[in-house]
Structures are given as structure tokens and as C-alpha cells.
């Protein structure tokens, strides 16, 4: 007997006394919780996102659409980046003013190659104001999940207010659960037993979020 058969057998035994007419889980669980906390205008929702991103130690920038290439070029220069990872579907104009060496997002890239890349620029799928969370779903303008986890510096562009929602339930309605979702709340960080914060353990040490619109 395989491990799979053992596990499925235990599941069947655990469910043996469940009545056949019992309501499905999706119907049995109450969905009457608040969809968001308080009422806000779109501008106030974006302000809350910026506040919570900063609380998580992300660096937040705002700019109009036409100034985005200049801002990204400045952020890469300030970082001293010599190379930047570029998802295949990233808007070409975003890097139009930067002379940093561009590294394509390739399936064959090794961890060592990704680690040698200084920065990565991506778009996002949705941003959640109440939790200060950016969600990536692997779309062409965001690339493979690993490119947002290995380089030490991540610039993520959020279009406001279109890509900003107030709450997690609202975000889930926009996301495809079959896609590789990466939820980011600030730069990667952890704490040891003495609560000393260490950043960059399992993701970028620096997260810069550009709210553009």
C-alpha cells in the first residue's frame, strides 16, 4: 500500500459518519464578516496602503504616469545597481531612461545567476490597503515567482487606484487561485529567539513600492 492510499484511506474513515445530505463546506461556513473596515474614498484607500507599506519598512514613492521611467532610473542609480531582472511582459517604457544591464527572466536561470543580479522591477496583480500587502500572480509583467525572491532589491509598481483594494476578501475576488500567488508585506524579515530583526533572509532586503497614477 502506498502512502497516498494510506492517507486517502484515513480521510475516508474520518468522513464515514458524515451524513450525505450535510451542507457543503462552502455553504456551511458563514460569510457574513465585514468586507472592509470603515468607509473610505479611493484616495483614502491609497493613503492607507502607503501608510501600512511604510509600517512594514517598505520604501514608498508616488509619481504620475509620465514620470515613472525617470523615477525607476533614479532608484536603480541610487541603489548602485549594475543589473536588473526584467519580466518578459514588463512595459518597455518603464526602463527607457535607465542604462542598467537588463537580465531577462528565463526558466533556465540558476539561483546563482539570479543572486548576482542587483535588482528586479515588476508590476503587481493587486495591493491590499488594510494589510499593506502586494500580491504577485506570475503574470508576464511580474515574471516567475523566484525573481521577486532572490535579488536583494525589488521595485514593484502599483497602478493607483485601479490595482488597490481595501481588504483581503476584495483582493481574493480579483485573484485566480490556480496561479502562483506571492503575498508580500514589506521586505523579507525574520527575528531570532531574542527578537533581533534580520532582513533579507528569504527574499529582498529592500522593497520599494511605486504608486503610479
UniProtKB/TrEMBL annotation:
<dbReference type="InterPro" id="IPR003741">
    <property type="entry name" value="LUD_dom"/>
</dbReference>
<dbReference type="Pfam" id="PF02589">
    <property type="entry name" value="LUD_dom"/>
</dbReference>
<protein>
    <submittedName>
        <fullName>Lactate utilization protein B/C</fullName>
    </submittedName>
</protein>
<dbReference type="InterPro" id="IPR037171">
    <property type="entry name" value="NagB/RpiA_transferase-like"/>
</dbReference>
<feature type="domain" description="LUD">
    <location>
        <begin position="48"/>
        <end position="212"/>
    </location>
</feature>
<dbReference type="InterPro" id="IPR024185">
    <property type="entry name" value="FTHF_cligase-like_sf"/>
</dbReference>
Amino acid at each position: 500500500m502506498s502512502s497516498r492510499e494510506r492517507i486517502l484511506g484515513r480521510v475516508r474513515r474520518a468522513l464515514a459518519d458524515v451524513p450525505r445530505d450535510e451542507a457543503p463546506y462552502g455553504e456551511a461556513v458563514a460569510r457574513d464578516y465585514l468586507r472592509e473596515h470603515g468607509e473610505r474614498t479611493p484616495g483614502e484607500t491609497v493613503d492607507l496602503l502607503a501608510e501600512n507599506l511604510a509600517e512594514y519598512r517598505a520604501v514608498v514613492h508616488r509619481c504620475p504616469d509620465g514620470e515613472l521611467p525617470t523615477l525607476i532610473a533614479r532608484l536603480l542609480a541610487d541603489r548602485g545597481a549594475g543589473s536588473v531582472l526584467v519580466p518578459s511582459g514588463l512595459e518597455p517604457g518603464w526602463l527607457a531612461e535607465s542604462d542598467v544591464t537588463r537580465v531577462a527572466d528565463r526558466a533556465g536561470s540558476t539561483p546563482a545567476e539570479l543572486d548576482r543580479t542587483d535588482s528586479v522591477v515588476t508590476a503587481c496583480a493587486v495591493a491590499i490597503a488594510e494589510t499593506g500587502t502586494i500580491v504577485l500572480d506570475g503574470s508576464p509583467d511580474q515574471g516567475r515567482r523566484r525573481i521577486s525572491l532572490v535579488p536583494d532589491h525589488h521595485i514593484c509598481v502599483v497602478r493607483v487606484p485601479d490595482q488597490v483594494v481595501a481588504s483581503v476578501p476584495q483582493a481574493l475576488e480579483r485573484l485566480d487561485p490556480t496561479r502562483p500567488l506571492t503575498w508580500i508585506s514589506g521586505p523579507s524579515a525574520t527575528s531570532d529567539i531574542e527578537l533581533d530583526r534580520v532582513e533579507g533572509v528569504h527574499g529582498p532586503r529592500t522593497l520599494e513600492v511605486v504608486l503610479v497614477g
